[in-house]
Amino acid sequence: MSSILIAITLLATLAIIFGAILGFAAVRFKVEGNPIVDQIDDLLPQTQCGQCSYPGCKPYAEAIAAGESINKCPPGGESTIIALADLLGVEPEPLDAEHGAEKDVPMVAIIREDECIGCTKCIQACPIDAIMGAAKQMHTVIADECTGCDLCVEPCPVDCIDMVPVETTLQNWHWDKPENLIATSEQPHEENLEQGVH
Amino acid sequence: MSSNFVNITSPHAHGGNSTSRIMLLVILATVPGIIALTYFFGWGNLINIALASITAIICEALILTIRKRPISFFLKDNSALLTAVLLGIALPPFAPWWVTVVAVSFSMVFAKHLYGGLGNNPFNPAMVGYALVLISFPVQMTTSWASPFFLSLGTIGVEQTISFTESLQVIFSGTTSLSDAFSGATPLDTYKHLAKNETANEILQGPLFSGSENNWFAGGWEFVNIAFLVGGLALLALRIFTWHIPFSVLAALGTCSMIFGWDADLYVPWSLHIFTGATMLGAFFIATDPVTASTTPLGKIIYGAGIGILIFVIRTWGAYPDAVAFAVLLMNFAAPLIDTYTQPRTYGHDKANRGLPTKPDASDKEG
Amino acid sequence: MQTITLHSFDGGIHPQENKHQSTQTAIAQLPLPTQLIIPISQHIGAPADVTVSVGDSVLKGQQIAKPKGFISAAIHAPTSGKVVAIEKRELPHSSGLEGICIILDTDGKDQWLEEINNGSLAINEYLEADNELLINRIRDCGITGMGGAGFPTAVKMAVQNRTIDTLIINGAECEPYITSDDMLMRERALETLRGVQILLKLTSAKSCLIGIEDNKPEAIQAMEDALHKIHREHHIAVVKIPTKYPSGGEKQLIKILTGKEVPSAGIPADIGIVCQNVGTCEAVYHAVAEGKPLISRITTITGESIEQPQNVEVLIGTPVKDLLGYAGFKQEKSLFQKLLGSKSKTESKPRIIMGGPMMGFTLSSDELPILKSSNCILAPSQKELPANDLASACIRCGLCTEACPAELLPQQLYWFSKAGELDKAEQHNIADCIECGACSYVCPSQIPLVQYYRHTKGAIKDERAAQQKSDRSKIRFEARQARLDREAAEKEAKRQARAAAAEKAQAAKKAAAAEALSKQTTESAEGVDENTSTDAPAETKNPEPVDLEKLQKQLDAAQAGLKKSMDKVAELKASASEDGVENAPIENLDVFEKAVATRRDKVKLLALQIAEAKKLAPPVKKEVSREDIEKKLRAQQDRLAKTKERVDLAKEQGLDSLPALQKGLDKQMQKLKELEEELAQFDKAGA
Ligand code: SF4
Ligand code: SF4
Ligand code: SF4
Ligand code: SF4
Predict the structure, then answer these.
(1) Which domain holds residue B97?
(2) Residue B208 domain-assigned?
(3) What percentage of chain A carries pLDDT values higher than 90?
(4) Which of B250, C164, C230, C480 makes an SS bond possible with C203, Cβ 3.0 to 4.6 Å?
(5) Which of A124, A145, A151 to mutate to test the pocket of ligand 2 (most atoms within 8 A of CB)?
(6) Is residue B366 part of a domain?
């Protein structure tokens, strides 16, 4: 009987001691972080396309902080969802198809300048002011700034805006990952490979 | 790319080394040790090795089929064979056949392939198999050791040797383990037990130790260990592994046993620690298994020293006859952590980046 | 000869050297090719600016592209001839991307530019000359590093804000097969040393070390002899270093010769060192002492598929094909079986490598040109440099760690790269990997490690760029949001001011009406119309068409706002009833209802104002509008025609953009119709 009492007391004491240490550590080593909304906003791609149904990334970040689900941003895609899940300590979910699909290549808007009538409609639509031009003058997209959000395409009355993949140059080219040379556990069985079954 | 010329990435030259060559060399390096084992302890280990190898290859092929992997490609790498050989050496010479089969198949299926096959296993497969049978079948694992007898010279205290067919019978009969006349505890165990009542001098007079004339100081084990040392040094010379792990295992074990060994009446002397049991096998062939060891130079030293210290601790205060398996497995646990904190300094850096990457924005998680 | 304590770098390997094949004969001169392909971007930095146009005749040594910006290099015509095209061609680069090239048809005369020919560009007393002059000459001659990346030499030498105490000349040439520097030092030691003297003068370094691997005894001897000839240079030393790959890497050579390490992400000048290749020194000498630009280089052509491996002096821009033909290329021998994911699938194509077997890259065709930095063309047989087997799993053997000259943990980098853990790879200093390939060379599992690192480095760069861009977009988005808010606030303020004015006017009107009413009793009824007009507030007094438009717009906006508010009210009500609490107080409902009321008032007011303004609008406006519409109509017709052309073209060529264009066409037709209708209506109204 007494041994049980001893054991209980001992465990209780240990629990109290460790609890105190942990509590102290939590206070002592507290990391002052950004407010959660800013942290979420930092993870969003800042394309500002509104596909998440919020008028931009910051509002979506606010909504996430308030409990909105994390899978509504197509430009960010899977990696953003995983990063958000990581930050918030929740399970990652697949991208909500309702809001669109993830693009496989980054796009950029380009205005066919000889067709532009200078209506300024695209300027008004662009969430990040990446289009230059004045009324009745030819407009042009600052390609480095354009996030490829598509928002300027619809308003153009003469349909002179195209979305094109970002061009590969000697500066941004790099080698692909050597996926198919590895015979590790991901390697499909030889016969399967031949039949094209994966 | 649809060009007329081949497009591949550099380097275009390769040194010609291959995984199967490395594994094969390691297997070959165990040969001196195996010969010594056979010489002193009979045919048992040879039979074990053969049995283990066959089991390993069958298991590997089976699992590869189930996992839909190219069989020949992976069987060729000799890694299954190496695991089998190491197990065959490590198991007691007259362990019943099913002990060997269980150990090998467990190490292949659970310790290796469940983790994704070669290269992805966190624990040394051979030692996982060994530990499993040691825990599950303690009787067979402790009584199947042979007392040293010389194939040619006759045995100590026993007048006849045990022939190959007799060995086969002992191993495959399954139920009867070795008759008392042939079985015997290892010198380490013996010393430990005797040290409770006798003084060092008395113990060392015993037949297992220098008391016998056909014997140096550890009943044949010293020669087995020296043979493994020779094989290990050969591998070192061939640069199959670096000196870090074997050196630190032996240094740590030696240091510990010397510190405690001043009182030889209570503790096993250092010479027995180093030259009996699976010490050399462990230091050169098991602890150096690259997949499960630490990989940084400093990490290897820490890893090896950890193994050495654990071997000493388990041997001295534990209940098992030898400790290499547990020591290695315990350090396998620690290897990733050791690696994380022992990154070497890179060219052009003042100091090494140690620890985990620090991401400023993700450092304090909520919820 | 002074003694220098040599240091050693970590790791390194000893691959088969295979250098003797190409050092049997003296450096040969390649016959003039018929056509040269000269890319304008052969160096690190901005591509040069083309200064010739198609059809121009150029002389040997004439500048055909000038440097653009600080880090850039000029390009010169390697021989006389005619520019036949300036177009995008595939570049000798692992990416296989295209870049602008100047295509020059040679005329066979090989005629020098007059200034170079008569030596007027040469600087005779170059060791007494002004540094500025020398650097300008080097820049004008388009000299770039000839050992590897091709960094413009003038830029490297002009970094003056650091004191340089050691000049290191790289003659190590550690890559197997390559012997161009070896042969250069054997045959042109004096020129090379004179170039070294010039560089030494430019850097004002206290000492100069020429590092040469000990597998080139002839080169070392030749350089020593030349050094004796020059006499006075007691602070130039030829240093024999042990043969080990990659001792010719800039960072490794610096470590060997000085024991110092170039800081990560830094340059050698940070520790008072400048490093130049021996080939560059020779080029500098020719540029300064003879005024000759960099238009040719020594290239090793070797490998088992070459009949006569040797070193050849080739003009920059020479197609590799010409060089291969000259040295005797046996295509069948160079066939190379490449594994495609599985052992049973291979493709067999010839293999040509530009550079050495460790760091060179395969060429996608033999039409590609020799660049200023192309030190070797290697055409090995499959037996000589066999393909890697299928890679198997990393067994963490640590051989790569032992081989890595940068003291990295290649196996860890590999695991991180494979798993896409960029942050960990970065923390393990992947950026310090020099892509030497030593790790891949020793890896028993035959993993293409370097390709993993290259990919990961690129991915890290991409990620960083994306992060920067997203930060920028965030700032821009926020700035725009702030601007919109400000504008909205301004508008609101204006609107309020106007509303106040309107109220005042209304009050005045009412007062006036009351007055008029009282007057009516005394005056005749005719005056009413006049009264209203004269008593109208200021803005209606001088009515202008602009005002009318403005009002109309305001009305539209107000109507839209009204509708929105009404919708909101309806929505709120609906949602409330959905919740099942019919008569519960709805949050904010009163606010919205109030908004509806005020907006309704506003719409009424505006409508009133418009009606008034319209009455007063001058009739001239109609003419102007008609013209406007006609103009618009014409523009639209033009556009339509253009779009049609485009659609036709797309149809002809079967482009994927057809549906998009078609949609645009429909839209434009619609627009045209609208305009036509408008015009018709206008005419009707006018009639
Ligand atoms: S969908 Fe993503 S990128 Fe687009 S606005 Fe929403 S959060 Fe931003
Ligand atoms: S230019 Fe168009 S696609 Fe690009 S950011 Fe602006 S609105 Fe989006
Ligand atoms: S050499 Fe290859 S197998 Fe060995 S540790 Fe490095 S990457 Fe892994
Ligand atoms: S390629 Fe990079 S990781 Fe590999 S050995 Fe060279 S420097 Fe080290």
Answers:
(1) 17-184
(2) no
(3) 0
(4) C164
(5) A151
(6) no
